[in-house]
Amino acid sequence: MTPKTPVTRHEIFQTSLMSALLDGVYEGETQVRDLLGHGSFGIGTFDALDGEMLILGGVCYQLRADGGATEARLDAYTPYAVVTNFVPHISSELPRNISRAQASAFIDHMTVSENYMYALCIEGQFRSVTTRTVVKQQKPYRPMVEATDDDAVVEHTDVRGVVVGFRTPLYEKGIGVPGCHAHFITEDRHAGGHVLDFQLEQGSASLCLGTDLHLQLPLTDAFQEANLTPENIDAQLNKTEAHHAEA
Ligand SMILES: [Zn+2]
Question: Ligand 1 centroid vs 6 CA: distance in angstroms?
């Protein structure tokens, strides 16, 4: 039987697991140069949680705790990242002057089915974007629920920029961040972070539908010894990724 909406197979590449990051596995064996070979668009973090990662147009940016952004070194390592070669399968103008929650509800209606993965790109003029950024950790590494207590929150106001993220089905909880996980960078590429909230004045959204997950697990001792199925994973994800009740 032919499906209602034709869907093209599209691969999303991921290194390690969100649950490994939660358990303090902050060192990976994948370099930025390898990651870019799997996708020109994506998000993640760097070894020792040294900032948030955002990849756009094949360039990898490092978003640091002071809210600033620089190009990442190609030989930097990542303990967790998700990338794809973004193809805008579905695009739409967004209603003007909307909150993140309103944008999210609008984007829900753009998707074909909530059972696929989506890379998400929002470009536009923002009244405000609230971001937080992880702070570089020292060994011995603490679990992420403690490490994120150091997070720096920055408010970017009246700025053009791009939100780069992924919408991940709930069945992927622990593999990724269920729901939407997004990072922001300004148009001049000088500032950004992990998105907590925004007010969008005017902009558009594009979705790239993912059907195939290429998951690359680390071969490190830390990964092999990690507890990847904690009982309180919902609370951990909520504290580290959302910082508020609705994710
Ligand atoms: Zn993030």
Answer: 31
